[in-house]
Amino acid sequence: MTEPAKTLYEAAGGAPTIARLVEAFYRRVAEDPVLRPLFPDDFTEVKARQTRFLTQFFGGPPLYTEQYGHPMLRYRHLRFRITPKHAEAWLACMSAAMQETGITGPLYDAMFERLKRTAYHMVNTPDEDADRPTGQGADRAGGLVGIDNA
User: Fold this and answer.
1) Residue 11 class from Cβ within 10 Å (0-12 exposed, 13-18 middle, 19+ buried)?
2) What is the required cofactor set for this protein (predicted)?
3) Cα–Cα 20 to 30 A to 64, which of 9, 22, 57, 93?
4) Which pTM does this prediction carry?
5) Cβ neighbours of residue 55 under 8 Å, at least 6 residues apart?
6) Could you read off the pLDDT of 56-68 as tens digits, one per residue?
7) Regarding the domain with residue range 8-129+137-142, which homologous superfamily does it belong to in the CATH classification?
């Protein structure tokens, strides 16, 4: 008999790994000049939501849906001006966080491919429009990627 295939969540090490990944990711976001302005000053709620989202996204328990409903990522991010430059910065932070967390090889490839498709799906503004006023400063509490006040 063969064992059932593991989810990406299980293969990565479950909740402890996702928690370390989120911590490593937000340390990078805090220092990133492209991403930092899009996030709230206090990452506490953003990290909690991101942990729930990534747990579910990679095949773990449906923590995000249980707490907030269907992720509807693109809809929840429409109020933010997200450019390809933002997606690339987000992916760079996540890639480095994954490597720091010990997610490598084929597991890294599979997880990062899912994240890459999702990050580029969030893009709603061409880079050349990024400097237009957005009104985001008054609404920074929502954050990005799996994070929303809705």
Assistant:
1) middle
2) heme
3) 93
4) 0.83
5) 9, 15, 18, 61, 63, 64
6) 999 999 999 999 9
7) Globins (1.10.490.10)
